[in-house]
Write a structure and sequence with these properties.
The chain has four domains: 24-152; 155-259, Sandwich (Immunoglobulin-like), CATH 2.60.40; 265-371, Immunoglobulin-like (Sandwich); 379-461, Immunoglobulin-like (Sandwich). Helices cover 3% and strands 43% of the residues. The strands form eleven sheets. Strands 12, 14, 15, 19, 20 and 21 form a six-stranded mixed beta sheet that branches. Strands 24, 25, 27, 28 and 29 form a five-stranded antiparallel beta sheet that branches. A four-stranded antiparallel beta sheet has the order 4-1-10-9. The protein has 469 residues and is mostly beta strands. A hairpin with a 6-residue loop joins β16 and β17.
Length: 469
């Protein structure tokens, strides 16, 4: 009887790299017998395979074994390690073949295996690092393959233990020499239960520089960039970092505590203007704690910013900001300088200082944004007039259409003035689809000393005494 031999050939085409120490990899070789009672159940047979790495110095791994299981879905595993210089262009040719005879289901008859043509798979080193496995190769109704392929001895060699909000910091992985995809960064916010891949690049804001933040040994970023606008939900919690893909970690996880290092905004309230075009009446900012006055803590670069364009400050205090208790109120002189846009959302940005030591720049969470709703502008136009019935009469009318402002809830929706006089009787109003039509009575013909007709002056005000400007 012939014995079954499986040859697994992985050829890596690489450029020579002058390094003292070769990077190290590991993988698990898997054997699955396929159907129950397949070729592996011949007690006189065995299986063999070899693993060849072509690099600056060839590395050969060989193994011969007799399968223990001949039952479908039961796999046998064995781990191997090797050293090689690989880059993203290195490729692997995976071949498996065998010729032999075997017994089927313990029968006395001997059935030939005719899987004599090798099955081949080509895959780059980068693909194998990312995917972690090759498809199974079928030989004589059994299946062989490689899985859990990964670089080993990688570690996060440089990382802080605590990071302030708004502070950029760097994570460094070592050793060098692996393909870029081996330095694949992930983070976890739920105690290593789920892992999120870092984005390939990050950009603080439109117009700022774009940074590479994955598939590289060194990444620089701030916590709020990965955690988003609700990053304060993670204050005083540990965020974990590692290299790896899916369920295949390449390093042990590193924990970093995320801290505010400053009073945290827990609310922004405002009182808008009564009339369109007026300045805002009040802005109050509440914090989760008081300032450490005894330590000399102050807030610098305290500014109100637009979410749409956060790089531009709508208003910034030029002096240090301090407050007692947990609330800071804008002064009227400051409010008069602030112009907000209807429908825009605004947030607070600040940086805490104790002496000359500045903490990270802290943005308030989006859940506390000031969403500005401007009062509707009061507008009106004259649409029709009815002349007096006779010379010197005062039974003329003027029809106007009014919209916007803040209509009154009792009586007439608006106040109507003709030549400075408030009309209190006989004014007729009808409102359709938010537009009010008013017929103003008691209109006479006014003339100057030269007999020229003087136009009437009409004014409309709303419940807040606003008028068209």
């Amino acid at each position: 009887m012939r014995k079954i031999y499986i040859l697994i050939l992985l050829g890596f085409c690489v450029n020579a790299i002058a390094q003292a120490t070769k990077p190290k990899y590991s993988f698990v070789h898997t054997f699955n017998s396929g159907l129950e009672g397949s070729w592996c159940n011949d007690p006189m047979g065995n299986w063999g395979w070899s693993f060849l790495v072509n690099s600056t110095v060839n590395t050969m791994i060989t193994d011969n074994f007799t399968p223990v299981h001949c039952i479908s879905s039961l796999d046998e595993y064995k781990e191997f390690q090797f050293e090689a210089f690989l880059d993203k262009n290195s490729f692997i040719n995976y071949n498996a073949y065998g010729t032999s005879y075997g017994r089927i289901n313990g029968a006395l008859s001997i059935i030939p295996c005719d899987d004599t043509n090798p099955s081949s798979i080509s895959i780059t080193a980068s693909e194998l690092i990312i995917k972690g496995s090759t498809p199974f190769v079928e030989v004589c109704s059994s299946y062989l393959g490689i899985h859990d392929f990964k670089p080993i001895n990688l570690s996060i060699s440089s990382a802080p233990t605590e990071v302030c909000s708004g502070t950029n910091f760097t994570l460094t992985a070592s050793p060098a020499g692996f393909p870029d995809v081996a330095y694949h960064w992930q983070y976890s916010t739920d105690n290593e239960i789920t892992w999120v891949n870092f984005p390939a690049t990050m950009q603080k804001s439109e117009g700022s520089s774009v940074r590479t933040t994955n598939d590289t040994p060194n990444i620089n970023f701030s916590m709020d960039e990965i955690l988003g606008t609700n990053h304060s939900d993670f204050f005083n919690k540990q965020i974990y970092f590692r290299l790896g893909y899916d369920e295949r970690p390449f390093t042990t996880a590193t924990a970093i505590t995320y801290s505010a290092c400053a009073p945290v905004v827990t609310g922004i309230s405002y009182e808008g203007p009564k009339c369109s075009g007026d300045t805002i009446n009040k802005i109050e900012v509440t914090f989760d704690r008081e300032l450490y006055i005894d330590k000399g803590e102050v807030l610098k670069s305290f500014s109100l910013r637009d979410r749409i364009n956060p790089m531009i400050s709508i208003f910034q205090f030029l002096t240090d900001v301090t407050f007692s208790g947990k609330m800071f109120s804008f002064q009227k002189t400051d409010l008069d300088k602030i112009i907000l846009e209807n429908g825009h959302k605004y947030f607070i940005q600040q940086q805490a200082y104790i002496g000359t030591a500045g903490k990270g720049i802290l943005d308030s969470d989006s859940q506390y944004d000031l969403e500005y709703v401007a009062p509707a502008a009061l507008k009106f136009i004259a649409t029709k007039k009815q002349d007096v019935s006779c010379n010197g009469g005062s039974d003329g009318t003027i029809e106007i259409k009014v919209w916007g402002g803040t209509p009154k809830t009792e009586g007439l929706k608006y106040n109507y003035y003709v030549d400075g006089n408030l009309l209190t009787q006989n004014t007729i109003e009808t409102t359709t689809s938010g537009e009010t039509t008013a017929i103003l009575p008691g209109i006479s013909v006014l003339k100057d000393v030269n007999g020229l007709i003087i136009p009437h002056q009409i004014k409309v005000t709303d419940a807040e005494n606003c008028f068209e400007k």
